[in-house]
Amino acid sequence: MSWSTLTAASKARVLGLLLSCVLVITSLTVLSVKGLNFGLDFTGGYITEINTASVTTITDLKAKLSPEVASKLTISKAGEYHFVLREAPEVSKASTWQAELNEQGVDYTVLSSSFLGSQVGDELFEQGCLALFAALIAIMVYLAVRFEWRLSVGSVVALLHDLILVLGLFSLLGLEFNLTVLASLLAIIGYSLNDSIIVGDRVRELLRIQPDNQRINTHVVINDAIGSTLTRTLITSGTTLATIACIWLLAGAALTGFAIALFVGIVVGTFSSICIAATLPQLLGLSSENYTQTLDDKTKAYMELP
Q1: In 110, 193, 216, 291, which residue has its Cα 20 to 30 A from 35's Cα atom?
Q2: Residue 213 included in any domain
Q3: How many distinct structural domains can be found in the chain?
Q4: Which residues contact 113 (CB under 8 A, 6 or more apart)?
Q5: Which pLDDT belongs to residue 263?
Q6: Is residue 231 part of a domain?
Q7: Dihedral, CA atoms, 80, 114, 127, 257, nearest 10 degrees?
């Protein structure tokens, strides 16, 4: 396969693969330099729920606090007058935010106050990573059974690409990485895999039905497979993104990280299913012969039956 023999669509897919490589290297570099901004779910800290008499928005509540104190709090809204305040473990329990609210004349009631130890956070992080690892292993086994190894490798690489880009974005922007974001990574795994399997199944079907004794161009078959599934992929992704956008805009700060991770994951997942899951097998030498030989062996076995 030479560059001059590729169609415009095939060249676009190869360039997309190169772009993905650059983005993955950039994400890994950012992760190694900045790391992730782990939330209190993993680091531990104080969690206090309050109910106010007049303050109804997070912005209004932060306005009652000094910038220094507000920067040390993670505030989410649980109801019209109900707020959840999270503080880092190194902050004293007799936090100054209470004194400042009292000075501003804010009428509030502490509903509950608890401390999440770092040991609990470590256990949550360990269990979450184990769940992520188990999901990846199960998917790899499934792909190894379902597809020819080149298509399996393409799907696995696309999956890792999606996860790395999402983590790299969270590291670059300094967004809080908590349990809801970890849950979104598990959802991204399933969604990305679905896109890759749809394209991979179509590629396999087209390679199997090619006329005998005719050598076909694999990149043309892959372009046809993508073209036949693209409309369904875009409609599915579009409707899902619309739902996630509503969560992002309307569900409040508690689910912002979850919505951002899932939104980005679906966008890059759709991209990777075309530029990685379908293109990498082509570069690894996928052809109709990989399936023709298997079919001939089965046919021969059936013919030898008494």
Answers
A1: 193
A2: yes
A3: 2
A4: 46, 47, 48, 49
A5: 92
A6: yes
A7: 30
pLDDT at 127: 77
Q: CB 51: neighbour CB atoms within 10 A? A: 16
Distance CA 2, CA 223 (A): 16
Q: Does residue 151 contact residue 286 with C-beta atoms inside 8 Å?
A: yes
For residues 302 and 13, give the distance between their C-alpha atoms in angstroms, rounded to a whole number: 40
In a domain, 283, yes or no: yes
CB 204 within 8 A of CB 147: yes
pLDDT at 180: 85
Write down the residue that tokens 């184990």 correspond to. Answer: 130
- pLDDT number for residue 169: 93
Instruction: Annotate the chain with three-state secondary structure.
Output: CCHHHCCHHHHHHHHHHHHHHHHHHHHHHHHHHHCCEECHHHHCEEEEEEEECCCCCHHHHHHCCCHHHHHCEEEEECCCCEEEEEECCCCCCCCHHHHHHHHCCCCEEEEEEEEECHHHHHHHHHHHHHHHHHHHHHHHHHHHHHCCHHHHHHHHHHHHHHHHHHHHHHHHHCCEECHHHHHHHHHHHHHHHHHHHHHHHHHHHHHHCCCCCCCCCHHHHHHHHHHHHHHHHHHHHHHHHHHHHHHHHHCCHHHHHHHHHHHHHHHHHHHHHHHCCCHHHHHCCCCCHHHHHHHHHHHHHHHCCC
Give domain status of residue 62, yes or no: yes
What is Dmax (Cα atoms) for the chain? 94
Instruction: State which residues form the domain around 150.
Output: 3-37+120-299
pTM for the model stands at: 0.73
Q: Are 170 and 295 in the same domain?
A: yes
CA atoms within 13 A on the CB side of 41: 17
Tokens at residue 140, please?
Answer: 């790899």
Residues 111, 126 within the same domain: no
Distance from C-alpha of 285 to C-alpha of 292, rounded to nearest angstrom: 14
